[in-house]
């Protein structure tokens, strides 16, 4: 399971554009994951309305680079969105505050509906048999997850697996947390959610990450890296090892592997870098 790791120490737009392009090329090109005629929804992390430098949300430079690459490769139908966890923040306000709305407008990516939704049955789920999914996710053919590297109070880290939680509309998120009383049950539910949505590609902004009391009150820290993979568990496992955390101690990695959405065993992961593969 390949994970691209691109060193990057700046949010300078041309450098980010080149890094995103290089990472996706190391994975075989964007055509491996999505087709130009598909309706693609980009899912950044817009937890709350916050300035990019707070490291709470996906940086607009990374989001812009993904939009730019898709447009240059002939992808026509782009939309974006997230449902913030904070009830006082609307998706629009969060996107504006984080600089994502401006980036989306520049590339003509439309606002997907992340405010309304409906119940989507998922009978094969181990923990969850249905999800209240945002309309914008249901209307898209494919989802690209543009997540943020952060620590998390409940799950140790918030990474690729966890970011799909924003596909559930705001008010229903609290219900999900209440129904999943501990980190393992919550992680099982997140694994089901990933199986249900089937994101095609995960791109993690770890140039400046968050450590400490995440997902919103931690401290920004320079990690100087972008990570990309079709496997969210492998991506999170590489992130975990970068912060000296055993992936086997991360509930979303364990649940994700059990559910079959990916692998966290390093023997099964190839890290692809501009200087060659690390196994």
List keywords for this structure.
single chain, 279 residues, alpha/beta, ten-stranded mixed β-sheet, two-stranded antiparallel sheet
If you had to describe this structure to a student in words, what would you say it looks like?
By secondary structure, the protein is of the alpha/beta class. Helix content is 33%, strand content 25%. The protein contains nine helices and twelve strands. It has helices at 13-26, 60-72, 91-97, 100-106, 135-139, 170-179, 183-197, 232-242, 251-259, and strands at 2-7, 39-44, 77-80, 110-111, 117-121, 130-134, 142-152, 156-158, 201-211, 219-229, 270-273, 276-278. The strands form two sheets. Strands 1, 2, 3, 4, 7, 8, 9, 10, 11 and 12 form a ten-stranded mixed β-sheet that branches. α7 crosses α9 (251-259). The radius of gyration is 17 Å and the shape is globular.
Relative helix content: 25-40%
* Beta-strand share of residues: 25-35%
Mean pLDDT: 92
Largest sheet: 10 strands, mixed
> What is the radius of gyration computed over CA atoms, rounded to a whole number of angstroms?
17 Å
Low-confidence runs: none
Secondary-structure element string: EHEHEHHEEEHEEHHEEHHEE
Number of helices: 9
Based on Cα principal axes, name the global outline: globular
Structural class assignment: alpha/beta
Can you count the beta strands? Answer: 12
The first-to-last residue Cα distance is 10 Å
Helix and strand layout, with pairings?
Layout: E1 2-7, H1 13-26, E2 39-44, H2 60-72, E3 77-80, H3 91-97, H4 100-106, E4 110-111, E5 117-121, E6 130-134, H5 135-139, E7 142-152, E8 156-158, H6 170-179, H7 183-197, E9 201-211, E10 219-229, H8 232-242, H9 251-259, E11 270-273, E12 276-278
Parallel strand pairs: 1-11, 2-3, 2-7, 3-4, 7-9
Antiparallel strand pairs: 1-10, 5-6, 7-8, 9-10, 11-12
């Amino acid at each position: 399971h390949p994970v691209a790791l691109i060193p990057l120490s700046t949010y300078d737009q041309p450098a980010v554009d080149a890094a995103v392009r290089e990472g996706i090329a190391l994975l075989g090109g964007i055509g491996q994951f999505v087709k130009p005629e598909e309706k693609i929804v980009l899912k950044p992390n817009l937890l709350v309305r916050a300035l990019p430098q707070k490291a709470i949300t996906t940086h607009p430079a990374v989001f812009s680079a993904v939009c730019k690459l898709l447009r240059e490769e002939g992808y026509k139908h782009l939309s974006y969105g997230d449902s913030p966890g904070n009830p006082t923040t609307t998706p629009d306000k969060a996107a504006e505050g984080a600089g994502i709305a401006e980036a989306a407008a520049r590339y003509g990516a439309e606002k997907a509906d992340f405010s309304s939704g409906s119940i989507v049955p998922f009978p094969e789920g181990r923990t969850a048999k249905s999800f209240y999914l945002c309309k914008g996710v249901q209307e898209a053919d494919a989802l690209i997850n543009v997540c943020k590297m952060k620590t998390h109070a409940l799950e140790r880290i918030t990474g690729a697996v966890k970011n799909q939680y924003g596909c559930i509309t705001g008010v229903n998120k609290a219900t999900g947390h209440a129904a999943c009383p501990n980190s393992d049950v919550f992680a099982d539910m997140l694994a089901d959610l990933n199986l249900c949505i089937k994101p095609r590609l995960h791109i993690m902004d770890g140039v400046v990450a968050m450590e400490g009391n995440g997902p919103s009150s931690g401290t920004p820290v320079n990690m100087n890296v972008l990570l990309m993979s079709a496997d969210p568990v492998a991506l999170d496992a590489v992130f975990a090892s970068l912060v000296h955390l055993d992936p086997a101690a991360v509930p979303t990695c364990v649940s994700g592997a059990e559910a079959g959405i990916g692998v966290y065993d390093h023997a099964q992961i190839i890290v692809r870098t501009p200087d060659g593969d690390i196994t």
